Amino acid sequence: VNQKIKLGIGLTMLLGFIACQEVIEVPLKDPSPIFIIEAILSDQPELGSSYVQITKNTDYSSLDPTAFGVSGASITITDNLGNRDSLFEVPPSAIGGLKGFYGKFGMQGVLGRTYTLNVQVEGKTFTAVSTMPAHHTNIDSLTSKRNEFAGNNNNNPDPTVDTSANEIVTIHFKDKPNVVEHFRIQTSRRNPKNLLPIAETQYIMRSNERLFRDAEYHHTPFFILNFAKGDTATFRLWNMDAKVYDYFNTLQEVTGNAFATPAAPANPNTNIKGGAQGYFAVVSEARKVIIVK
Amino acid sequence: MFKKFISIFLLLHCVFFAQAQQKFSLSGTIKDARNGETMIGATIVDKNNPSMGAATNEYGFFSLTLPAGKYTIEVSSISYQSQTFELDMNRNQQLNVSLSDAAVAINEVVIKAEKDNKNVSSTEMSVVKLDVKEISKIPVIFGEKDILKTIQLLPGVKSAGEGGSGFYVRGGGLDQNLILLDEATVYNASHLLGFFSVFNSDAIKDVTMYKGNMPAQYGGRLSSVLDIKMNDGNNQTYVATGGIGLIASRLTLEGPIQKDKSSFIVSGRRTYADVVAQPFLPKEAKGSILYFYDLNLKANYQVTPKDKVFLSGYFGRDRFGFGDLFGLQWGNATGTLRWNHIFNDKLFSNTSLIFSDYKYGFDVKFGEVKFNVSSGIRDWNLKQTFQYYAGKQNLRFGLNYIHHTFLPSNVTRADDATNGPASTDIPNRYGLETAIFLNDEFDISPKLKANVGMRLAGFNVLGGGTFYEYDADRRPIDSTVTQAGDVAKSYSGFEPRAALTYIINDATSLKASYTHTQQFMQLLSNSNGGNPNDIWTPASKIVKPQNGDQYTLGLFKNFGNNAFETSVEGYYKTLDNQIDYRNGAQLSFNKYVEADLVFGKGWSYGVEFFVKKRTGKFTGWVGYTWSKTERQFDAINAGNVFPARQDRTHDLSLVMMYEITKKWNVAATWVYSTGNAVTYPRGYYLINGQLAALYSDRNGERFPAYHRMDLGVNYIAKKTKKYESSWNLSLYNTYNQKNPYSIDFTPDSKNLSKPIATATYLFKIVPSITWNFKFTR
Description:
The complex is a heterodimer of chains A (293) and B (777).
Chain A: H1 3-14, E1 20-24, E2 35-42, E3 51-56, E4 74-79, E5 84-89, E6 101-103, E7 114-121, E8 124-131, E9 139-146, E10 167-174, E11 182-190, E12 201-206, E13 217-221, E14 232-240, H2 242-251, E15 272-273, E16 277-291
Parallel strand pairs in A: 2-16
Antiparallel strand pairs in A: 2-3, 3-6, 4-5, 4-7, 5-6, 7-8, 8-15, 9-10, 10-13, 11-12, 11-14, 14-16
Chain B: H1 2-14, E1 23-32, E2 43-46, E3 49-55, E4 61-67, E5 69-76, E6 83-89, E7 93-94, E8 97-99, H2 118-121, E9 127-130, H3 132-135, H4 147-151, E10 157-159, E11 167-169, E12 177-181, E13 184-185, E14 190-191, E15 196-197, E16 204-210, E17 224-230, E18 239-245, E19 248-258, E20 262-271, H5 273-277, E21 289-304, E22 307-322, E23 326-342, E24 347-366, E25 369-390, E26 393-413, E27 429-445, E28 448-462, E29 465-470, E30 476-482, E31 487-505, E32 508-519, E33 521-524, E34 535-538, E35 546-559, E36 564-581, E37 597-613, E38 618-633, E39 642-643, E40 650-659, E41 664-673, E42 677-678, E43 681-687, E44 690-695, E45 701-702, E46 706-719, E47 723-732, E48 742-748, E49 751-761, E50 766-776
Parallel strand pairs in B: 1-7, 1-8, 12-17
Antiparallel strand pairs in B: 1-4, 2-3, 2-5, 5-6, 9-16, 10-11, 12-13, 14-15, 16-17, 18-19, 18-50, 19-20, 20-21, 21-22, 22-23, 23-24, 24-25, 25-26, 26-27, 27-28, 28-31, 29-30, 31-32, 32-35, 33-34, 35-36, 36-37, 37-38, 38-39, 38-40, 40-41, 41-46, 42-45, 43-44, 46-47, 47-50, 48-49
């Protein structure tokens, strides 16, 4: 919800006139069918770090995850030296019936190279270009401390809110001086009590945003997700090019995670050409784990 | 350049100078007898030849040149008793008149309206004038009479949102309206997110809005000028007026400093909704504050019969705090020092030194980490205007010099910053806006009147700080460091304007006008209705000044001895160098915000119909506008034309007031408008483990149409010379229409691709009651 609307509702309540909400029928034009491509090429060799996933917006009319995914695509990734990899669909039987995942053993990006993705599916061709940063960025350390701002979770009547989650983790890392770098920090949280992973959340930033840094280091508090004592939090730091940053930054506006809803929302700025949604992210990736105490 | 500009003007005028004949001037000041307030727009005419006439300016001064001879001069103003004078014009003469309110006249004089065809005969068009007396009868939300809400009931002026005081004029943006209070720019005219405007109607004398065809003394905004003038204060006796309402109260004190000559007025207003609501608040919200207050001050002093000085000021603050977690405050402060000087019966001068300031601040605490957010704008403004009444020519010329300080949106770590530098440190920007202007009103023939004007406006982007240039990925690639006082970039341009009125007969005229305007600053706003944290930024190397052209054509006709006033006006307007935001733009705390701006153009056209009944027991008006407003940006919507948010095909307002008896009067308003053009999700898809909305084209969908009726009743309980007491009851949204304030979309849990729409309604039926009083010594 837009900040202003929230404030507006709060104000009218304070003024004694209760705002009310109800579901209404809004005549909407049908969306045209589109493909969604998520393509990641990482500098890390681990299986699952690099893959391409293809879905279609019509897939989501059911809740069946095995219906999500488009098979039969022909996919290649070529680097600026002319090396070409063809990707194969991961057999759905190997990953619980999920369709539309493509990859190749040993697929790994090289620092400084530019890659081109080519996807042919159902008679359509989509292409995207992304460049691996020239150097790898490490997470130096992770620290946690109590977040007093969210600390009032203890009184939160909403049962889905984990009232014990009052800890905030700060990510410390060093960037390259005098260039603008683009980062994406993701985390996943596991709690020993319920072992349920929380959906991944992301934090997007540019290195020239100066608020949480000193001369050398960024000290970025991960405000958007609180942790409980005993949680295992895995952080992944991506260093990526400006276009991929732009995609994730504008994606936040359509997934409802933006700081404020824009006046006129729009689909994210994708680097994929040909009319698909999604991204081709060639990234350097660092991981670090913290057990929150 | 200026020389050329003057010579063109002189050339233009030589043609029209009348033949030599002995002429004398009649000049003076017209006042309200009751309180000594100078009257704006009172008319002074020759009864035997009504085309010979003049109207008072904003300081009540007039000058009329007449050939030698005997005249019967009538001085009149609507709802005042007219006075006539037999004059023998054999020398220059002074005529200072005090007019009495018709309602308090002993011999219940019927107000003659037949001379009152100024709307037809003047060269003014696209102008809206509000009768301050009328405002108090029109019902509005919470019973607080409000200028900005009343103005939205007139054709061509559209409300930005439910209960809000933001407005759009003829398809222009929210920041394209110049709002002046005693000449000082008011940068944010809203209290409490727009539920109230900052103008306390008790302290207001005159409200004039130019939707186009602005006289040349105004400049700096593309779409409209709203010129609000404060009362001078009663120079006859001490008066206390006020009102006590459900959520706000107000009090005005005024009186003479020197009887008949000088006076003061002090007016204050404060809301207390938070105090009233306190017992009903949940525990966490205890100690919350939410209020605003306003203070208007004005004093004038007659130094000599030819010199008068005025000092006026406004100060208002909104405060909103939630426990000790956060505090929010914003507000305007303005000050105006004016000196009126009458050089002679033909030359009137006004010199104003004006200060204007808008500040926004937000404090928030995250554990021991405290942040402070601030932004604002501050102006120093010097304006010199001369009015020269040269026979058939009425010239107005002068210059204007404004120094702007733009305080960008900065966030500062207010706690001990052990973790690093403590602020976003975005430097202030400075700008110098200058203008010279000349406006002339004259008759080409008895049937054809003209008003032509020229404004030469310039803007210097002043140095201090670094200016950046960006690559295609919005990364700063080049920067220029400037010193304070350097001119980093300079813009200037002519703004011609002209209006012609062809008088078909006493009750009918045809008018046409053209106006070119420029705007050197813009409001960066992430919201639709205007937020207190919106940021004013100047033109720069990257941001070019906006400019606009407007063409209007109108037919004006009065019926029933001027009891009915009607008009049809068509307009076509183009807007260049318009500003919008890239997808994902970050407007606050962003040193590189200019990289997030995109530029394009816009246009708007429409027809406005207006019928007003001005006299009798039953008064009111109907305004209807049909319009289309579109924008085109290379970087938005794949370069395709899209409707502006404020594109509303139909907009209808109905205002009716009926005086049942001297004690009781009732009023009703009804508004209907096409819903805003908006962007909605048409479906959802999964990405990155989350559901993402799939959006329509920019503004490809419509909000539901808006309609609402408000009712009001005024009861005058007591009215004597010493004491007045009245009650105002109002019913906002009388038939309880559910007009969505916002519509939010969430995916359907049974079909992840389908959106479910949830509407939020702010106001159901809202009754309110206000008691108003007036004590006169």
